[in-house]
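Lab channel / #folding
Pinned by the channel admin:
"Please post every new chain as: sequence first, then the structure tokens as a reply. Keep commentary short and put observations after the output so the thread stays searchable."

First post following the new format, from NK:
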Amino acid sequence: MFKTQFQTIALCIAIGACASGGEYQSKPGLVTADPRIGEAVNQICFISGINNFSKATDQSVVVSRGARDYLIVTENRCRDLPNAMSLGVDAFSGCLARGDKLIGYDSAFAGAPMPPPFPCLIDEIYNWYPDRSEPHGDDNGNVSETGS
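Reply from TO:
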């Protein structure tokens, strides 16, 4: 019972989404395709400090914790993530790591919508550097590594 209450109160974080461009084409080659992606990190601790998210696709999202940004890549496609207005987090501790779950809600307040959203299993976490040159794609969806 305590775990359920703890997850609901402490780990389900409702944060407002902000619109942004520059989506990712696919998970394979993700790390080499975008110069804004930095080194891999094992975890984001003190997840209650996550205060924003952006660039949500069906397999990734950028979250902000204070002045730091992180790219979270999911193991599976997440149908609720691209249109999410808030994120819920299901983690085993106060840190977000591989194997934990993100839940995209279509409301600004993470609640109990019907049908319930599908949890997205976290696969990889990277530092995100938004000031680096954004990649530009051609008409076929191919991404170049340098911006123009």
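NK: Residues 1-26, 139-148 have pLDDT under 50 and may be disordered.
TO: also worth noting, The longest strand covers residues 120-128.
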